[in-house]
Amino acid sequence: MRVDGHVELNLNTVGDQASELEKMGYAGVTTVETAHDPFFPLLVAAQHTEKVELMTSIAVAFARSPMTLANIGHDLNAYSKGRFVLGLGSQVKPHIAKRFSMPWSSPAARMREYIMAMRAIWGCWHKHEPLEFTGQFYTHTLMTPYFTPTNNEYGAPKVFLAAVGPKMTEVAGEVADGVIIHAFTTGKYLRETTLPALEQGFAKAGKSRDDFEISYPAFVVTGQTEEEMHKAEIATCKQIAFYGSTPAYRPVLESIGLGEMQEELNTMSKQGRWDEMGELITPDIMKEFAVIGEPDTIAGQMKARYGDIVDRTSAAYANIPKDKRVEIIRQLSV
Q: What pTM, to 2 d.p., does this model score?
């Protein structure tokens, strides 16, 4: 199991952070699109590293056109000598429509076409195929030499797709190179909903599981003292409750018989009762979502629960000393 490490989006410090993660044995460096652009930090990270993969986890696809991301993906992959992974997510309708002022409809179908459009653009640039992509949502039929990249030694980047529901997960299996499973996932949901949906996507594309990577940033609750463990438990319960309040994630709660809790959490979130929401997450519920234990037990638990499924993880345990994190990475990588 490969382990990815997250870096902050501060351009002044990300280079040193990425270099440190590479020295610690992390396989990849990831960014997430929140208050800052997720791509610029990876450009800086590429300058300070040699081996780690550089991945957006995630960048918001529907905030941009396929041509825009095809270009960014190409440039980062070329500059990093083939180390870039374009991790995409759809976001939700209010953000796409109200924050980005971009169209929203049929997210799974749109995402499928989006990735296919990027692949058509890369096919034009890297394989000299004519650009003739005409779809329901996107059309790309014009490319001249002046706008065609020439630094094509490393080709197109890998594309990972974040997915929760079965429709988007099937799309990931069909047209992406990997899937980014949401941390808000139970083992039952992963095995009974996610994996079958991926298999349907593989079947459509005529590919096998061997051609694909599953990334799962599992919740990890750990610490070296009772106080540290308690703080980690509270923080994780709040995070689980926050995600659980999202209507689209109700099926995950339903997988463990707690579908009705979603409505209660949603109501509380609208009332701003964030701390109280976390109190609804009992120890038994937390165990369904999180790996819990002292640092020297984490790698073994991760392998036991997900070793037959997950190819890479970005589980967070930044609250424990560096040497213990290095040992967890080493054990997971064996």
A: 0.94
What are the C-alpha distances in Å from 20 to residues 10, 45, 326? 15, 10, 11
What would the two tokens of residue 36 be? 């800052």
Confidence of residue 181 (pLDDT cuts 50, 70, 90): very high
In our burial notation (b when 16+ CB lie closer than 10 A, e otherwise), range 63-101 reads bbbbbebbbbbbbbbbbbeebbbbbbbbbeeeebeeeee
| Residues whose CB is less than 8 angstroms from the CB of residue 84 and which lie 6 or more positions away in sequence, other chains included | 42, 46, 53, 54, 55, 73, 76, 77, 157, 158
Per-residue pLDDT tens digits for 255-284: 999 999 999 999 999 999 998 999 999 999
- What domains are defined for the chain? 2-216+298-333 (3.20.20.30)
Number of Cβ atoms within 10 Å of the Cβ of 103: 10
With H, G, I as helix, E, B as strand and everything else as coil, classify residue 93.
Answer: helix
What is the residue whose two structure tokens read 């990831």?
30
Question: What SS3 class is residue 183?
Answer: coil
Question: What is the rounded distance in angstroms from the CA atom of residue 216 to the CA atom of residue 234?
Answer: 21
Q: Report how far apart, in Å, the C-alpha atoms of 262 and of each of 20, 117, 182, 248, 259 are.
A: 40, 36, 17, 10, 6
Query: Under a CB-based contact definition with an 8 Å cutoff, are residues 156 and 75 in contact?
Result: no
Spell out the residues 6+ positions from residue 131 whose beta carbon is closer than 8 angstroms to its own: 120, 121, 123, 124, 140, 141, 142, 143
Helical H segments across 61-106, by residue range: 66-79, 93-94
Token couple for 265: 């959490």
111 band by pLDDT with thresholds 50, 70 and 90 = very high
User: Is 36 within 8 Å of 60 (Cβ atoms)?
Assistant: no
**How confident is the model at residue 316, as a pLDDT?**
63
Radius of gyration of the chain (CA): 20
Using one digit for the tens of pLDDT, what is the confidence trace for 119-130? Answer: 999 999 999 999
Q: Is the pLDDT of residue 89 over 90?
A: yes
